[in-house]
Amino acid sequence: MLSKIYTCAVLGINGQIIEVETDISNGLPCFTIVGLPDAAVKESKERVRTAIKNSGYKFPTKKVTINLAPAHIKKEGPCFDLPIAIGILNATDQINCNNIDDYLFLGELSLDGRVKPVNGVLCVAAEAAKKGYENIIIPYKNTYEAAIIKDINIYPVSSLKDTIEVIEDGNIAPFTVEIEDIMNKEADYEDFCDIKGQENAKRALEIAAAGNHNILMIGPPGSGKTMLAKRLPGILPSMTMEEAIEVTKIYSTSGKLNAASSSSSIIRNRPFRSPHHTISAISLIGGGKTPKPGEVSLCHYGVLFLDELPEFQRNALEVLRQPMEDGEVNISRVSGTLTFPSIFMLVASMNPCQCGYHNDSTRECTCSPMAIKKYLNKVSGPLLDRIDIHLEVYPVKYHELEDENKGESTKVIRERVKKARNIQLQRYKDYNIYCNAQLTSGMIKKYCKIDEPSKKLLRETFESLGLSARAYNKILKIARTIADIEGLENIHLDNICEAIQYRSMDRKYWEY
User: Fold this and answer.
1) Which one, of 174, 183, 181, 168, lies nearest residue 152 by Cα?
2) Tell me: the pLDDT tens digits for 338-348?
3) Is the pTM of this model over 0.90?
4) DSSP characters over 331-370
């Protein structure tokens, strides 16, 4: 007897509908799974056999053949246990369900028949809804994660028996949750008002947040670089529902989503990732035998903070260049090519030399000129050129620490950033971009027009500093962002002057 059950595989952050064909025929008792299964799928034979017996059902003493179609796609993980078990029970007429084709099944089985959680449930639910499936049966612990998708009925189950009850009864109500209420909750961020002094640095971070520009901070130890970086996500605009779902998909497929409660089932705060400098290139960019998202994808629509930038491996830093430009990572393997999104804001910090006190007015540097040059050259020119804003951070003075007056709060700065971002959203609504940092060369000519005095200043700066064409474009993008913060329709000379200040520091240090 032949049975067809539907499930879904996860490829990158997208789903692929899989047809589980089960054939029960006469012959020597054996259990075969075909369709390019990996080791975890092959091992499901023992889990499924034992789970069926321990749930009070009979495992057929015949030839059992399972085909996972399409056969050219590699099937990975234990998520096929539940659909395989349901397929066997359906093929042996132990289930009474006339509309089993309307359900999509997903889950790992334990030996006693319990359904255990799996990764990528959100990706599966989204694909099922897209392909028109009405119902999806998932592990109970993945409930809130799948409930984000509104166009499909979610049925959480905790055991194989529960699964059969759902499909045989037909009157069990699907699970629902108000995700909008979760998204509207105010997030907790460290406040900018806790930072004493550093007004220039705060201004630069506000500009970076308003235009989604990459930023590099250079300064001696203890000047507040890390403290500033950790407060940056708080001034970024809240994520939209579409952005939150896309980020949550990445965390779901990588197994980093804690979906035990409604509040943790969706990533509503912009990600902030701060990997240690010992991280490998593969961990940073993503990959592996079974490709998984790296740090650049885990901080999608958020912030990637690289503290002590020169301490990172050179090859790890160089792999950042392509995703910084393209906003995505393409990982090619023998089995195919996967694409992970990686639109992020790079925030990096570093000391000016190995001892940390080069060009410091209060402490003497102990590094030789050759040691300073060697240290700074760990950051390549092409990578440095892709960082929009270069900022020098100075130590806080004693009188600033003693000052009882608090600076602007994160909430006040975020409102200005939101206004600037809204201006950009309206300006670029006909394009597939949402901020000034994403402007192409053609769009820069259209939206970053400057007057003759600004052109003259920019020409002199370009020639004197030996800037690249990329640096020239970035100055115009930063100036456009500054104008948006100030609510100006056109870029003024003052905006160009301020933007140039954020592109001149690399000549101060890297020409040493």
Assistant:
1) 174
2) 889 999 999 99
3) no
4) EEETTEEEEEE---EEEEEE-SSSSS-TT-SSS-----HH
